[in-house]
Write a structure and sequence with these properties.
Layout: E1 5-6, H1 8-13, E2 21-28, E3 37-42, E4 45-52, E5 55-56, E6 60-63, E7 67-74, E8 85-90, E9 96-102, E10 117-122, E11 133-140, E12 148-152, E13 158-164, E14 169-176, E15 179-186, E16 192-199, E17 209-215, E18 230-234, E19 239-240, E20 242-243, E21 250-251, E22 254-255, E23 260-262, E24 269-273, E25 281-286, E26 291-296, E27 302-304, E28 311-319, E29 322-331
Parallel strand pairs: 2-9, 11-17
Antiparallel strand pairs: 1-4, 2-5, 2-6, 3-4, 3-7, 5-19, 7-8, 9-10, 11-14, 12-13, 12-15, 15-16, 17-18, 18-20, 21-22, 23-24, 24-27, 25-26, 25-28, 28-29
Length: 332
């Protein structure tokens, strides 16, 4: 089994004669299957060998006040000369950073395919500012997901993250240690993409500073059948990310399982089952938040999807201008 290895040289960097240092955590969140395992170099030293997707290093000391090079290479690299990406950085003395590998290295098979990059956040925390709370940083690392909101529906906290786009960080949020229900919604604040439970109390995270990552692909069929979208958590101790369990989506108190749709994936026709469609309207929304089809259902329960492009969509059912239920589907 491949392991996260912090080489001795990585640890020694922080105890050299260099007087200025910064704290750094490295996170592998590039979902490209070709980058499932990488090597991370600091200058010419392989410091994270066979570093796996959805893994974080602990925070360590790196030189500050002078330029260093951070490089990402294939997992079978023999030297920094094999690097896929090299980024020169100058860290500030006494600052704390999170460095996230994001993007795609494969020339084909991914849509969209933003190039591999290192997204750097300064002002990171290794513990909550208030030991009675949990501090949460959020990073949007899903390459095929649009700008989204994160809305808490369990304790009524409302919109926690507003209009976060790929590569962006938002936070820190300081919240009580509790178990929360989260909905990922498109930027319209209504159309739901996914739902998750955030069991902060169950995980015993009081006093911790964590980072929540949007990770993977909303539509794996357009991305080489790579890992599916989810919310994943890292702690300052590093190691494998913690997956947040999927939760039940709910819109105005009506859960999304009040109806079913088939076939899914679909080609020419989508059938709605398990709901009285007599007085309902519908909208079909793509992952950019655009309404691509709408109309009245009346008593019929089929919708023609032949004109839609391939991809992932959300079907909303609407009663009196209120979305009462929603389901995701794939158009092949």
């Amino acid at each position: 089994m491949k392991k996260l290895l912090l080489s001795a040289s990585f640890l020694l960097i922080g105890i050299t004669a260099i007087s200025q240092t910064a704290r750094v955590q490295v996170v592998h969140n590039s979902a490209d299957l070709a980058a499932a395992t990488v090597d991370v170099y600091v200058d010419d030293v392989n410091t994270l060998d066979d570093f796996e997707f959805r893994t974080a290093s602990p925070f360590v000391d790196l030189p500050a006040g002078t330029e260093i090079e951070l490089s990402v290479a294939p997992g079978n690299s023999t030297s920094v000369a094999d690097a896929l990406l090299t980024v020169p950085v100058t860290l500030m003395d006494g600052e704390t950073y999170i460095v996230v590998a994001y993007g795609i290295v494969s020339p084909t098979g991914y849509n969209p395919a933003p190039p591999l990059s290192l997204e750097i956040f300064s002002g990171a925390r290794e513990a909550a500012a208030d030991p009675a709370l949990v501090d949460i940083l959020v990073h949007h690392g899903a390459t095929d997901a649009p700008t989204v909101d994160v809305v808490e529906t369990g304790v009524g906290a409302g919109t926690l993250v507003d209009d976060i786009s790929p590569t962006e960080f938002q936070g820190y949020l300081s919240v009580p240690e509790a178990d929360y229900n989260l909905e990922i919604r498109l930027a319209d604040g209504v159309t739901q993409v996914a739902g998750y439970s955030a069991p902060l109390a169950t995980l015993g995270l009081e006093g911790a500073a964590i980072t929540v990552y949007a990770s993977g692909f909303l539509d794996p069929s357009q991305n080489s059948n790579g890992p599916a979208f989810g919310l994943w958590v890292t702690t300052p101790a590093g190691g494998p990310m913690i997956e947040l369990p999927e939760g039940t989506l709910g819109i105005n108190g009506v859960t999304n399982n009040t109806f079913s749709i088939y076939p899914n994936p679909t080609t020419n026709m989508l059938t709605v089952n398990g709901v009285d469609t007599q007085n309902l309207r519908f909208t079909m929304v793509d992952m950019q938040g655009r309404v691509v089809k709408d109309g009245d259902l009346f008593a019929r329960n089929t919708i023609n999807t032949a004109s839609l492009s391939q991809g992932l969509y959300v079907l909303n059912l609407i009663d009196n201008n209120r979305v009462v239920s929603a389901q995701k589907f794939i158009k092949e």
